[in-house]
Amino acid sequence: MIEQQRETEIFNRLKKVDDPELPSVSIYDLGMVHEVTIDDNAHVAVTLIPTFAGCPALDIIERDVKNAIEEIEWVKSCDVTFSFDEKWSTDDITEEGKQQLKKHGVSPPPENYQPGEEWSVDCPYCGSPYTSMENVFGPTACRSILYCRSCRNPFEAMKPVVSYTAS
Amino acid sequence: MSLVETAEQAKQDAAYKEALVEVLYQLADDDFIISYRGSEWLGLAPHIEEDVAFSSITQNTMGHAMLFYQLLEELGEGDADALAHERISNERRNGTYFEIKNGSGTYLEEPQYDWALAVVRNYLYEAFKKVKLEEALKSSYAPLRNTADKVLMEQPYHLGHWKTWITQLQDSSQEAKERIQSRLDEAWKQIGDAFELGPKADDILAKEILSSSETLKQRWLDSVKETLTYVPNGDLASELGNGRAKEHTDQLDQALATLSEVYNSDREAVW
């Protein structure tokens, strides 16, 4: 039972570690946490799944997770590793993550997206579908830049990234 | 050939490992040099949105190079950063067409770069990368399959970008059309070695690490012919040498000297 409590405590902490490039959106809600193990010596190992391969924020995320977990009283030490064998997809973002993204002015990726399909994006501020893509590439690899023609706000959207099936 | 699951397992068969590292160096060095040449366009692209897009693609492609260098590190080839920065040109396996300069001048002095070359080269490269990675999905080396799958999730955005450019320019003004055609003629004379598998080609095929050079070439030709309205006559040639056999132009030396200048100023620094 105590083990379960400890695990819950770790996950609660991970829900508070924000992506450095998306303040207010946690790495947990982005779907980056793959595995947490706690051994008998209170050593914690966290395995994360990176989003885009070229993401420069990985070192910062690693440091932030390590610091957050090691602040917990009973934790002796924490190791953070990134697994490139597991594939992150935008389908891994949680409902909470999607809500937080919108608050940050970033539309969440479309659901049930199939590779190669066109996708439509609703404005994160007013919900209008009357938007236009200004640049598929945005300030980070995972985001695009759009414009809402209803409320006249520029905004961003997460690019859909889903597992690839060779055609 | 059964699936080789880990680096440890691959290392137990010397011939397998030697063939495998050749393929990984090709993938890593191609992504590395094309993203270096892409980075030299920063601030010089035709308009600001293109600058954002091109630098985003370049940064992500450098991330792909890093994934392949990490696979090499796991196989005992050395530290990934060192593999990227410290190897001299005759240790590199990138295709020679991907290393040539963007145009005359240098980034700091009179960069008279040619956008037609950027569009043609990057489009041909991304189409080639897609084919090669799709073949790598069938590789006997499981970590290579996984990495190919990861990269292929992101790469459609890169290919789509350059496909849009070439489709529009080849259907644009007479000048645009001619400049694209002349860069395509040049590419046909220089891109041939990219399809080679290098000195370990026989083992690469026998051990099912990757598909044949002919398969790569044919699939690439089929794919670019769907987009290009002008396809040069004649076979692909390798006028600049065979990069897969570590032959390169002095333009690669120039690139390596520039890109590793900061790294070499203090190799122990943590950036």
UniProtKB/TrEMBL annotation, chain A:
Domain of life: Bacteria
Record domain MIP18 family-like: where: 8-80
UniProt-listed Pfam families: FeS_assembly_P, Zn_ribbon_PaaD
Region annotated Disordered, chain positions: 94-114
Signal sequence segment: none
Gene3D superfamilies linked to this entry: Fe-S cluster assembly (FSCA)
Domain PaaD zinc beta ribbon: 108-159
Alphabetized NCBIfam families for the sequence: PA_CoA_Oxy4 (TIGR02159)
UniProt protein name: 1,2-phenylacetyl-CoA epoxidase subunit PaaD
Species this chain originates from: Aliibacillus thermotolerans
UniProtKB/TrEMBL annotation, chain B:
Keywords carried by this UniProt record: Oxidoreductase
Pfam families: PaaA_PaaC
UniProt superkingdom: Bacteria
Entry GO MF terms: phenylacetyl-CoA 1,2-epoxidase activity
EC assignment: 1.14.13.149
Record-linked PANTHER family: 1,2-PHENYLACETYL-COA EPOXIDASE, SUBUNIT C, PHENYLACETIC ACID DEGRADATION PROTEIN PAA
Name of the protein this chain belongs to: 1,2-phenylacetyl-CoA epoxidase subunit PaaC
Organism: Aliibacillus thermotolerans
Gene name of the record: paaC
